[in-house]
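Notes on consecutive records. When two proteins share a document, each keeps its own sequence and its own token line. Never mix them. Below: protein one.
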Amino acid sequence: MGTKNTHEYEVKLFNEAERTLRYDGSIPFSEWQKVARAKLTELLGLPLTPGRCEVDVEYIKEEDDYTEYRFTVETEPGYDTPCHLRIPKNADGAVPLTICLSGHGGGMHIALGVSKCEGDEESLKNWPHRNMAARSIKEGRAALVIESRSFGECSLEGYGTSCTEAGKIAILNGRTVLGEKVHDVMMILDAVTVKFSDKIDFSNIVCTGNSGGGTQTFYLACIDERITAAAPSCSVCTFRRSIAAKRHCMCNYIPSIRKYFEMGDMGGLIAPRLLVVAAGEEDPGFFIDGTRDAYEEIERLYAAAGVPERCALRVQPGGHLNYADEIWDSLHKMGI
């Protein structure tokens, strides 16, 4: 007998699907990376047509310990992405860069430590780790904060999130919101590299974020080999125990991806570069057993790449948080 339950049937198909691009050792690891990265790029709906990709500065603000540049970059023709770049003062030469990617919420102002919407002040007080820019400055690094598509200033209402609305139309256009987010960061990095070449050491780029920002971090690092170290928090987990297990925002979903990959499989695209996966034991959306399963696959792939010491898993007893202290502790141990 079959089932009348559509959801049950879809889950059955999902669980039975063979991951045809899981690395099996039949070809050299570097060759697998080329094939797998090309397929992931295609699934994300990339490449997109680049815009002017120039930094259009809106203002410059001097603070005690950093200079802040507010600017936009036309990442696609007719689409401008707002950004902030904070560069530490009194640095001896060019400084390394941290790309700070916000998760679902009011927008990038949280990563800047700025209260803009109701509840922001209390949130930043209770969870100061959300202020990723301040932590980057503390680490002696420049902080590039980007407004992700459908978040904050780029959302339907100019605050909050509207990923589902944009995501539905993106799929109709043969695109994905996640692919668009990855494209934006790549184009912004192109523009910033030209504009601030004398101030930033682009050979040392850390990308980090929590939740949706962590997901974006992970996929960006899979595609863009300029990322020296990826540090996603509360986002790396098997699809089976995260976005296929309960309701999540549409910007997490990539058509057909389970035919080729589970999330851990894609971690091999980041090797031999550094990868720190942070997670909470009590995360209600990215279940810890799924994170451990994904990381087990990542460990296998880093061993296949000959660099088992270049990945780390940091699990904390809390929930869906940005575990910045643990991330930076691991990055320091890895030489960042």
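Protein two starts on the next line and is unrelated to protein one.
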Amino acid sequence: MSLWFCEFQTPNLELCSRVKKALHTENTGRLELAVLDTYEFGPALVLDGAIQATSCDEFIHHEMITHVPLYTHSHPEDILVMGGGDGGSIREALKHPEVKSIQLLGADQRVVEVSKKYLPEISAGLEDPRVEILYEDGGNYFQGMKGKYDVIIVDSPKFAGLTEGTAQGEFYQSIHTALREDGLFVTPTGSPFFQQDIVQGIHGAIKATFPITRMYLAFIPTHPGGICGFILGSKEYDPLSSLAQKTPIPTRYYTCRLHRTAFVLPRFLEEMLD
């Protein structure tokens, strides 16, 4: 008998993978949590039926959502990661010697605990003394906050998917206020092929809030269509011209050459964002 996991990536698109074994399943009270050992992607963290990370391709997402903003900023010391309870973005951010503190906000405690047990290669950085985990409601976290962070990384669909009118504008404005005068942030978007309305909505809201708004791409097999978009909003540093000269760090996907070329968008996407 074959066991298969199928993720509905859109109402009309599925990604299916054959499963060796279900390593862990539970309802946390907030979401359905599973770790599945798959043949093609290795162990996969699945939340509410959607793949969040796999041992096969997680490094692409976590390197591109982390190193692009941290190499764009000249001296990122204080970082906020929203979501990302698997710890992959934390692991990558800790590779930068300038980083003094990282706060992980809004993660489900059970996601963190299960990731530590079943995905240690992704979650190892969560034990670093520079990391503080805040199990708080991310929606209200920024109230009264001003100029606290150099870089904010939104690593959760719960936040990245705020694409509805006023709520969306208020969210990105609160991030703008929480950043220092030269701060910047990054968020993933939907698929440029299958979720164009989401991409346009997020890009438009960030462009209305930040003076510098840039979209870039990465190729991730488990993402809808195999391509993931990210949008960077910055107060001062332009990722096309501000690439800090820093000590090289170990990566498997990100390079400084890739940093520049990732912002070169195909014509259909340029036209869609216009």
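For the record: The chain has two domains: 3-54, 58-273.
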